[in-house]
Specification:
The complex is a heterodimer of chains A (about 350) and B (about 90). With about 350 residues, chain A is an alpha/beta fold. Chain A has 17 helices and eleven strands. In chain A, the strands form three sheets. Chain A has a five-stranded parallel sheet. In chain A, strands 4-3-5-6 form a four-stranded parallel sheet, with helices on both faces. Helix content of chain B is about 25%, strand content about 35%. Chain B has a five-stranded antiparallel sheet with strand order 3-2-1-4-5, with no helix packed on it. The longest helix of chain B has 13 residues. Classes of the chains: A alpha/beta (about 350), B alpha+beta (about 90). The structure holds iron/sulfur cluster (SF4). The site of iron/sulfur cluster has 16 residues of chain A, from helix 15 and helix 16.
């Protein structure tokens, strides 16, 4: 494997010689982390640069939704369930973690189905599950809602902030940018299929490669992208055939369609993007925390929460890297993050911090 | 530090995650060692955990599965290693 990596490194260097400055964007938190972990940047020639886009679901969750989550979690009757990465995302002085420290009932789950179990165990409480994530995670929330419906659960709802990746890529890159090629997220593609990224080649006219998460798989995808740039080709190639098919996971897609419908959604750093969110369909409305707690959430104001100087928004647009931030590693560290990109273990700032800036 | 914090959270929350994974986006491959009532027993090299089969069809014992947050999200294609080799060879052209 080592020699294969070396061979690919040589191939990439050879191809890069014929090219000018090349910036490749990746839009997946796990890619960000793998690229740091395997020190992929160090295997690339100087003129090939990797930047992260809006690929960390915790990071792109806008302040408004963090504020709403904190408002719900503060309520006496609520048991709030979420993934651990969400806990330290700050909203002003507060975070879910600070509520947890003050004794609020907040549970970290490792699967949405944990929320179902918690709701069963606490029939007198209102369990709210914070549904965040892209197409990889949204089907799991759909399965939770379906299961809750099947067993007639009354005390469980989902605060749904799920998002879909293709509209965000479209929005970010459509007006032209410095990005020359796109490393497509393997696990999102596992669900929606490689063909869902064909628009990158067809409409945005950029080479695209769906990539896995091993050093070898990422290097293979980068090699493929550089070869396309070298040859002047614009295709979308599936370089993660182990897990990704052209059409994706039909069972998961059908379940998504059964439970959710597209809606407009706000992304941190990118603003509102048409059709980029998932909302719970009418049929399952009683599991929608936004409806169940409508009166409570009506008064939640947004804004004023972002730390001065935090450049998460620029990082999520691929315009900056974490080390550009004056707070990086100093005032902002994983245990006391100033922004979501440090708070989430899959955020760019956390990945840079963990594996060395 | 983060790892120990997570451990502390998990303990406080009564969850025991032997794979040590709490990051939400991670998907991990494992072998299906058993199937019962819509759930698979997944073998991650000696550590066993359950995962729902709601999102896949025709899972069989012995299959390799990609697991994300308690669900099998795809059955892995064991022949695809060769396919990737072929793709890389084509790239080198
Ligand atoms: S280092 Fe901290 S303050 Fe700076 S961009 Fe990252 S999260 Fe924001």
């Amino acid at each position: 494997m080592k020699t294969e990596l070396e061979a690919m490194k040589k191939n990439i260097a050879g191809l890069a010689e014929s090219l000018g400055q090349v910036t490749i964007m990746e839009v997946c938190g796990t890619h960000t982390a793998s690229i740091r972990k395997y020190a992929i940047r160090e295997l690339l020639p100087g003129n090939v640069k990797l930047v992260s886009g809006p690929g960390c679901p915790v990071c792109v969750t806008p302040e408004q939704d963090i504020a709403a989550a904190i408002t719900l979690a503060e309520r006496e009757e609520v048991v709030f369930a979420c993934f651990g990465d969400m806990m330290r995302v700050p909203w002003g002085e507060r975070s879910l973690y600070s509520l947890y420290e003050r004794g609020k009932d907040i549970r970290i789950v490792t699967s949405p189905l944990d929320a179902l179990r918690i709701a069963r165990e606490h029939p007198g409480r209102e369990v709210v599950y914070f549904g965040i994530g892209f197409e990889t995670t949204a089907p799991l929330t759909a399965a939770l809602i379906e299961a809750a419906d099947e067993c007639g659960m009354e005390n469980l709802s989902v605060f749904c902030a799920h998002k879909t990746i293709p509209p965000a890529i479209m929005q970010l890159l459509k007006g032209g940018s410095s990005i020359a090629a796109l490393l497509c997220p393997g696990h999102v593609a596992t669900i929606i299929g490689a063909q869902a990224f064909a628009f990158v080649a067809d409409e945005l006219k950029l080479p695209a490669a769906v990539a896995g998460f091993e050093a070898y798989e990422i290097m293979a995808a980068l090699l493929c992208l550089l070869q396309m740039l070298h040859r002047g080709e614009r295709k979308c190639v599936n370089m993660y055939p182990r897990a990704v098919t052209e059409q994706g996971n039909r069972v998961a897609l059908a379940l998504l369609d059964q439970v959710f419908e597209p809606c407009d959604a706000i992304w941190r750093g990118l603003g509102e993007i048409e059709g980029s969110g998932l909302r719970i369909k009418e049929r399952y409305r009683k599991f929608d925390a936004a409806c169940k707690f409508k009166t409570v959430l009506g008064g939640v104001v947004d804004g004023a929460g972002e730390a001065p100087g935090c450049i998460c928004a620029r990082i999520l647009r691929g315009q900056s890297i974490p080390t550009d931030c004056p707070h990086f590693g100093g005032a902002c560290q994983p245990e006391r993050p100033l922004g979501p990109c440090m708070a989430s273990s899959e955020g760019s700032c956390a990945a840079y911090y963990r594996y060395g800036g | 530090m983060i790892a120990s914090l997570k451990y502390e959270f998990n303990r406080a929350n009564g969850a025991s995650d032997k794979t040590g994974v709490t990051e939400m986006c991670l998907a991990i491959p494992g072998r299906i060692a058993g199937i019962r009532d819509g759930y698979a027993e997944i073998d991650y090299g000696g550590v066993f955990k359950q995962a729902s089969l709601r999102l896949v069809k025709n899972a069989r014992v012995g299959d390799y599965a990609l697991v994300h947050a308690g669900f099998v999200i795809q059955l892995l294609d064991q022949e695809a290693g060769a396919e990737l080799e072929k793709l890389i060879a084509e790239t080198r052209g």
